Amino acid sequence: MTSTREISAIKSDHDLPEESFKELEKYIDSIKTTKGALIEILHKAQEIFGYLPRDVQLFVARKLGIPGAEVFGVVSFYSYFTMKPMGKHTISVCMGTACFVRGSDRIIKKMKDTLGIESNEITEDGLFSLKDVRCVGACGLAPVILVDDKVYGRVKEEDIEEIINNYREK
Amino acid sequence: MRIDSLEKLERIKETHKVEDFNDPTVKKILVCGGTGCLANDSEKLIEFLNHVIKARKCSEKVKVVKTGCFGFCEQGPIVKIEPDHVFYVKVVPKDARTIIDEHILQGNIVQRLLYKEPINNRKIEKQEDMPFYKKQMRLALRNCGLINPEEIYEYIKNDGYSALGKVITQMSQDTIIDIITKSGLRGRGGGGFPTGRKWEITKKQPGKTKFIICNADEGDPGAFMDRSILEGDPHSVIEAMAIGGYTIGANKGIVYIRAEYPMAISRLNTALFQARELGLLGQNILGTTFNFDIELKLGAGAFVCGEETALINSCEGKRGEPNYKPPYPAEEGYWAYPTCVNNVETLANIPLIILKGSSWFSSIGTEKSKGTKVFALAGKINNVGLVEVPMGTTLREIICDIGGGIQDGHLFKAVQTGGPSGGVITEKDLDTPIDYDNLLGVGSMMGSGGMIVLDDRDNMVNVAKFYLEFTMDESCGRCTPCRIGTKRMYELLVKITKRKASMADMDALKQLAYMVKNSSLCGLGQTAPNPVLSTMKYFWNEYMELIKDVDHPQGEGKYKAKNRERIEV
Question: Is residue A84 part of a domain?
Fold first, then answer.
């Protein structure tokens, strides 16, 4: 068990909630063996914190008794893990081949222009983050974008503003 | 309740009432619950249908069932009424009332919801009469769009778990290996390695601890067949893994699945839970001494993890980097124990082969490739969707007959098969019967089964660049040829598409392509240059149009001569 003092020592001056660390710790303590469970734990950590900042990675490393570099090595390897906070809504543009040949490169460009951010960035108001993802598997609806879990199919450049605005008002 | 003997399983199959599965007096409204249709409001449609049924007080006479993917994604949401076999397309939630009032209560077919053939505007009532389905043969997809994937009894009613029962009570491990080997089933993940042989090698390894892993890491952009099988028929994969586990002597199975497939994960979890409840997984399955259980491991987004050694590293919680082979996973895999890695679609075929026999299976397909293959047909084609055809079907049949030809009356240009590992196939090779060897022969490959149709509006250099960007991004970085080679190739392609390249760049690109191909550690790097080499071979002119070479404005000269020859994939 890591003591509360240790938790606060690791989380240093950042404003990551202490309860989240406790929740993660409880999860790690609950699994039978941590051997080979690093990716599972990181999935859980990302679910709790929304992203995997340095402090969370270090926390996991100490908890498992492995070097921080090993955790970073895994986090940086997989595209599903992110070290940056995400916006309230995540907009994912599918860049699978089917979407690509039906013009998803134009969609993502338009999206970047409309939001004023690049891929893997977050808008200033923290409302949106933009991702280009590999094949959602809904090729019949190409080109496809996802806002959080909602799928929008056969998206045209001119639809984008409206889709974004739907989420702005809420 | 546990099913603790084969007899009990048979009895349940005969007597259990489930959603009135076989009752002809009860109409069933099957609504597609695949990703494409769900995105088009099929969930809401189900809600509306149930609502209307309640209002009309006819819930005794009709049941709504959410099924797996019908395959015909372009026309979704799909609704099928059984036992009438009537197939409705593009159904929106507000059609719910018409369907119940007109079709269910009055018995009149709703004409406007029928599929209309694009060429002659003929309306088609039944699924089996539609050109999209006519040439298909659905084995791996046999239950997709037919049963409710979240209801184990429907699977059991459809011969589910009978194959498992048969093997663990009546067959020796060698008999099963013999059946699978004789059936000629080859790995559907792309490599085409004989499945029976893989099982045999794993079985022969000494030691008591062994594993069977289902590779459900479908990273290939434009391929979604594994996802559809897991979403539409998860039990067939579970059953096959148990059969495989019994055969090779493993008590534990792992499904390695993409975290990006939340619905497949949730349906698999439901299916695993139900199978455990009934004792079809766990200790003493069907009253025998066989114990087997399955756990899920989520991937985290890395194309290279489809490669089996990388996948095993990822299962162990490490970076998904491939290892040198040998030793093969069958000898030394998960935590250094013998491990058999099979693809989802491969596994989905297993229960059928056990039930129907090896000679039945080997009668389908071509001489060297038996059975069927599922393709994810997408791109500039009228009928986008999931199709399963016998091996030996020609590309022309798939594209023109099943796929319904090119969208908006444009001209066919090429079809990219095998994703980033494959290549393009042009008009002249469209009559090639599809099998593993023939596709290699025309400079592409089977791969996982993504099939992207390109038309005259697509620039092939751009397509090659798209794939290279993908492989460059997805290179795990472990070996230099792949890490740096793909980067340099990508830079050259960017230069070409910006019209700043010369013939010397073309030459460098080609040399690099062969270098990366011949010296990379794993399949990702070895096949990464394929889209470039194959587009160069068939669409040299499109490259030339982008080349600005002061010395050789028309691409003539020594570079042209050098490049023209020896382009082979």
Answer: no
